[in-house]
Design goal:
A 6-stranded mixed beta sheet has the order 3-2-1-4-5-6, with helices on both faces. The two termini are about 25 Å apart. It has 5 helices and 6 strands. The longest helix has 19 residues, at about 30-45. It is globular. The protein is α/β, with parallel strands linked by helices. The chain has helices spanning about 30-45, 70-80, 90-105, 150-155, 175, and strands spanning about 10-20, 50-55, 60-70, 110-115, 135-140, 160. The protein has a single domain, classed as Rossmann fold. α1 (about 30-45) runs antiparallel to α2 (about 70-80).
Length: about 180
């Protein structure tokens, strides 16, 4: 039986991008931008809604909150630079609160979380596991890797992938999420 698209439960992809100064090293941010371009295109093709939280400087900033993907995202991506501190934990906490509110408003919506980070954090308080399926993509590319992104993924109950392994996953983010 055919159902109109509007009758199908929607999908929301919440993306947190760590663009701190450390992501400039060894091409990490460039790789992340390529991945983000793919994510935006897949969201557009699948008619998924996107929420985008940018973690750079002193605090995380919302750039997109539950809208359909558009060319404005590609423009933002082309301008994306890195600098400042790593307000990643602020972003994770903001995202959790936003997701909970969104889930109450849209209970049938399927949510997914994608975190792109190099994991260059000194320490962090205990974090609650993600309320939805989550994938943490580690973009750490330094010769000596600290491996903190894997620890963060474990704590959040997220799948862990290093960005260098993503093309092996059939070139498709949807299989990873």
């Amino acid at each position: 039986m055919l159902r109109p698209r509007s009758a199908k439960p929607g999908e929301l992809w919440l993306v947190i991008v760590d663009a701190s100064a450390s992501t400039r090293r060894h091409g990490a941010l460039s790789k992340a931008k390529g991945l983000l371009s793919e994510v935006f295109e897949q969201a557009r093709r699948q008619r998924a809604r996107l929420a985008l939280l940018h973690a750079t400087g002193r605090q995380a900033q919302w750039l997109w909150q539950g809208q359909k993907a558009s060319s404005a995202l590609q423009h933002w991506l082309s301008e994306l630079g890195a600098g400042g501190g790593t307000p990643l934990l602020d972003a994770v906490q903001q995202a959790a609160g936003w997701q909970a509110r969104r889930q109450r408003l849209h209970p049938a919506e399927r949510q997914r979380l994608l975190i792109i980070t190099d994991g260059r954090l000194r320490d962090w308080p205990a974090l609650a596991p993600s309320a939805c399926p989550a994938l943490l993509v580690d973009i750490e590319s330094a010769p000596i890797r600290l491996g903190r992104a894997r620890q963060l993924a474990d704590e959040l109950g997220a799948q862990y992938r290093h960005i260098d392994t993503l093309p092996v996953i059939a070139g498709s983010l949807e299989t990873a999420l």
